[in-house]
Amino acid sequence: MPDLSQIVKAYDVRGVVPDEWDERLAELFGAAFTEITGSRAIVIGHDMRPSSPGLAHAFGRGAARRGADVTEIGLCSTDQLYYASGALDLPGAMFTASHNPARYNGIKMCRAGARPVGQDSGLADIRALVERWLAEGAPEPAATRGAIHRRDVLEDYAGYLTSLVDLTSIRPLKVVVDAGNGMGGHTVPTVFAGLPIELDAMYFELDGTFPNHEANPLDPANIVDLQARVRATGADAGLAFDGDADRCFVVDERGEPVPPSAITALVAARELAKAPGSAIIHNLITSWTVSEVVKEHGGTPVRTRVGHSFIKAEMAETGAIFGGEHSAHYYFRDFWNADTGMLAALHVLAALGEQPGPLSELVSAYDRYASSGEINSRVDDQAGRAAAVKGAFADRPGVTLDELDGLTVTADDWWFNLRPSNTEPLLRLNIEARDSATVDRVRDEVLAIVRG
Question: Which ranges carry the Alpha-D-phosphohexomutase C-terminal domain (predicted)?
Answer without folding.
Answer: 374-447
